[in-house]
Amino acid sequence: MNNRPSNRPPSQNDPRRQQNPADREARLRQQQRIRQEEARRQAQIEYDRQMQLRKKQREKARRKQQRKEDMKVFGGRFLVFFIVLLILLVIAGVLFVMVFYRTPDAPPDSGNMKYYYGGEEVRSEKIDDCISNGTVYVCFNDLADYIDMSESGSVSTGMTFILKGESSDTAEGNGSEEMILFHIDGYTVEINGQQVTLDIPNLFRGGNVWVSSKFVKDYMSNLSYSYNGDDIVKISRIKDEENSTSDHIAYLDVSFKLKESYPLDPIPEDPLVGDDPSTNPGDNVEEPYDFGFKTDLSAYEDYMNPTGDKRDSFLILVNTKNHLDANYVPDDLTDVKYTEESRNTQQLRLYAAKALEAMYKELYANEFYNMAVHSGFRTYSYQDFLFRTYTNNEMAANPSLTKEQAEAIVLTYSTRPGTSEHQSGLAVDMDTYGTFTTDFAYTAEYAWLQENAWKFGFILRFPEDKTHITTIQFEPWHYRYVGRYHAKKIYDSGLCLEEYIGYLNGN
After folding, report:
1. The pLDDT of residue 142
2. Model pLDDT for residues 310-355, shown as the tens digit of each residue
């Protein structure tokens, strides 16, 4: 006997036709959620498989490269054995000549320029290599090491340096760092996003970039530079007299004189949904809802659940098709209280910052004490630097990649400048590890956020089952503020932000 259900529609007397419409809707929602959970599970399996395959491919390439390097080392060792005695004899001969044949009145190393940073000699070069057309040059890489700048790039692609604050973590960055990019033409540099054409060119030599002494004096603050007119260059940080004590010497912060350019007036935000509530789809009045908060968050209610004209004003879509201008900076940026201690204080727009503050109060009330904010607002220029740095890192890890191929890889986990939600001031990266891996998705904190983030006006911006729409891989740490009204609808529907705004626009 065939027990399979019939595909024929139920008769008029069938109980299924008499079933309460609300029950049918509830059952459909339940079925939809089951399908979504299965899709998420399958996506995770496929993601893990791809990651394992990629890991094996990298390991295979690494072993192949290691074998080549081992062969080179093996061959080199034969040569080293036979030439080491010759090198020692040459060194002994040079020392003999220096000791016994030097003119008594000649100063030692009279043909070399010595560079001192903070009173310590760090470099000695031939004077002819340090002076060009009457201009004394300084190795900027040495200066970067002295003032604790990080660097990336190469002399063939251009070199970038980051001047970070005392507590800044440049691995991820927060936008407060200062940056300089030396272009390979020698005459062009970008300082904090502003392009400058130099009258005295920079030089690229020996894997380093050399700048004129005039550049150090004209474009850098709180550095003391001196040249004795002969063979000694001294550079040191300037003492902070006010904060120095007998036991500790403090120094003024080194910085670039050119700062990032900000617009005087912020770009107005045009909501994607009309201001007239009567024109907004699904604009019904929600029934009172018990959020189950363990703390009194009444002071934050207006920020978690903006109403009136504010309700739709945060539905700003930023992605590869919807860009922000290079000069866009929100005018209501506010410090985020729960920034990771090792980082500079992050910022978000006022409503997002206050709603996040409320969410952290509730996280703490539920005994989740390890969550911290690592990244909030980023400037256009800083996102540009990050994208170029990630691209250079991919090309360094796999030299066979073209720039376009490396950028394609980077675009799966980062965005080009102008397409990053962080520039909107409404996106926040937070987790318990600070490593930003999908491992965070297996923590109790993530499970809590999945169920509760919408109550505070936040959504998971890049869901695991929506990568084909967002074009960004699953990021369990990246949350976006839209306000509770829209966050609840997105949560209930299972849509991503692109789909939801498309629905509101009738697409």
Report:
1. 92
2. 999 999 999 989 999 999 999 999 999 999 888 889 999 999 999 9
Query: Treating both helix axes as pointing N-terminal to C-terminal, what angle do 497-504 and 484-493 enclose, rounded to 10 degrees?
Result: 110
One-letter identity of residue 161? F
Q: How far is it, in rounded angstroms, from Cα 419 to Cα 130? A: 43
Question: What does DSSP assign to residue 56?
Answer: H
Catalytic residue among 341, 475, 498, 499: 475
Instruction: Tell me the pairing of strands 255-256 and 372-375.
Output: unpaired
What letter does residue 18 receive in the DSSP assignment? Answer: T
Phi, psi dihedral angles at 286 (to 5 degrees)? -75, 145
Looking at residues 183-191, what average pLDDT do you find? 82
- Cβ neighbours around 55 below 10 Å, total: 10
Tens digits of per-residue pLDDT, 195-222?
778 888 888 888 889 999 888 888 888 8
What's the CA gap between 146 and 144, in Å, rounded?
A: 5
The two structure tokens encoding residue 376: 């909030």
Q: How many Cα atoms occupy the beta-carbon half-sphere of 359 within 13 Å?
A: 35
What's the burial of 81, exposed, middle or buried (CB within 10 Å: 0-12/13-18/19+)? exposed
Residue 82 has pLDDT above 50, yes or no: yes
| Pairing of β 178-182 and β 158-163 | antiparallel
Percent of the chain with pLDDT over 90: 38
Are the beta carbons of 313 and 499 closer than 8 angstroms? no
Give SS3 for 95: helix
Residue 431's SS3 state is strand
- pLDDT above 60 for 174: no
Judge whether 357 counts as a catalytic residue.
no
Q: What is the distance between the alpha carbons of residues 292 and 452, in angstroms, rounded to a whole number?
A: 10
